[in-house]
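# step 3/5: fold
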Amino acid sequence: ALLRGAFAFFQTYQGEWISQRVAYDLRNRIYDRLQRLSFAYHDRQQTGQLMSRATQDVEAVRWFIHMGVLRAGYIFLLLIAILVLMAVTNWKLTLVAWAFLPLIAWRSTVMALSLRPLWMKIQEGLARLTTVLQEALTGARVVKAFAREKHEGAKFQHEAEALFEDSYRGSRIQAVNSPMMTGLWLAAIGATLWFGGREVVNGNLNIGELTLFLLYLTMLNMPVRMLGWIIMISSRAQSAAQRIFEILDAESAVKEKPDAIEIKDCRGHVLFEDVSFGYDSISPVLKRVNLEAKPGQVIALMGPTGSGKTTVVNLMPRFYDVTSGRITIDGIDIRDASLVSLRRAIGTVQQDVFLFSATMRDNIAYGAVSASQEQIEAAAKAAHIHDHIVSLPDGYDTWVGERGITLSGGQKQRIAIAHRLLMD
């Protein structure tokens, strides 16, 4: 009893610590990997899918480590101990009782093979449900503007119903497996009673030994029941781990060289030499583009929608890599430069400005942690947003809301311009 109590304490305390530590490391590795992957990767992914892998899939792995791994160890040790005790008591009865072990192993394998693809489908269903919810919340203003609440509700209900059906199928498999495992264990008891009774009648075994042996066999009841549950959560954890490692093993299309050059005192001489680029291999956006921008020169790119104006800007900080040709800044091929120094040397204000859920000050000074209040205000004045900020009740401490939702499009652009001016 003392040994079981000590093991229960170890299982609860250490199991929780180990599982939380693994989850902590996994979440950090996923986040770090997502930060380092190029735009090309994020263009192909849905935000809700990535969020699901960093939360729900990690939790599935954590739960298995906390509840499954240590319990599996407990079951293994218990089985070894009981096997030794049974063999010492009567080796013939041991062979009879354990003859059902291959059947239990076979049934466990069948269950695992059935559950793993189903759990993969369930995890993907959870990710789709998260994606629908995330898009509906992010685009709540658009949904309401076009009175599409019922349509979005139907989309969410469709994904929720599909998830319910898959989860119900998993429950049915477990419901069928549990009595079968119990039935095999009862069959082992029945066979042991039959063979042991004959041995008692023949004088080869006494009642005390048979009773003791049956007591050992009864102790296997809980481990056999737990085995099916462990198989279930291990199948889910394997499916979740596969989805997690799809992120961790992903290769970035934009890589920094080990001996990358640090760009210092950038003058701003930009040169495009026979640059070609396409977001896929089928539809090229740029073909053999040649462009020179000298320091201090102002250049306007004009053309119809989709002609590649934004692409030209996105290629300079290596958000994407050119398909052919090269881009140089002050004579340095941008592929030879370190990404941090390159992106600090280039200031861009995107068409779709993103602001963090923070104060005006924090958004302007994002990336410039050592900037003083005077420098922040000077940048805001240069961007013609200072007067608006100081007119607010909280001034530079005003909370802009998620994605800057409380600001107009023009105000968000000016905040972004102030941020870039401060970085310079």
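# step 4/5: annotate
Residues 149-201 form the longest helix (53 residues).
# step 5/5: archive (pending)
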